[in-house]
Amino acid sequence: MLHATAVAIDGNGVLISGPSGSGKSDLALRLIDRGAKLVSDDAVAVFIDQDMPVLSAAPNIETLLEIRGIGIQTVPFIVSAPLRLVVELTEKIDRMPARHTDSVIAGFNVPSTNLAPFETSAAIKLEYALRSVVDADRWPMARSEIATPESNKI
Question: Which of 20, 47, 62, 120 fits a disulfide with 57 by CB distance 3.0 to 4.6 angstroms?
Fold first, then answer.
């Protein structure tokens, strides 16, 4: 179980990570407005299915998203989605980041990127980051299958 928010875009799971109050739910809300489906808000279960990490909702919070200033709301959701991208929310963004970066989730190196969550273009940037991972056919890889010492760990 991870303290994060997860959405699915065209069936691809995106894990949005950051500290409390960093904008995870707010970014998810903007993505949902653009057609994404909520997987889980605030607590995300990760399980392995057919050698792939899969995101799902924590028990009792399916369909629920906290909208700051409004309260807990029911939103469009999906039960689970294969993890394709990790987005770490931060205010410090490299102008030209490294070509491929990974985060370690449930023993898998998962493609990852950093985003400033409250930028007007944050949702669009996340969609472009996901598209670049999908277009490059990059998938999470079990740590035992690769030898890359440079990874973030979540």
Answer: 62
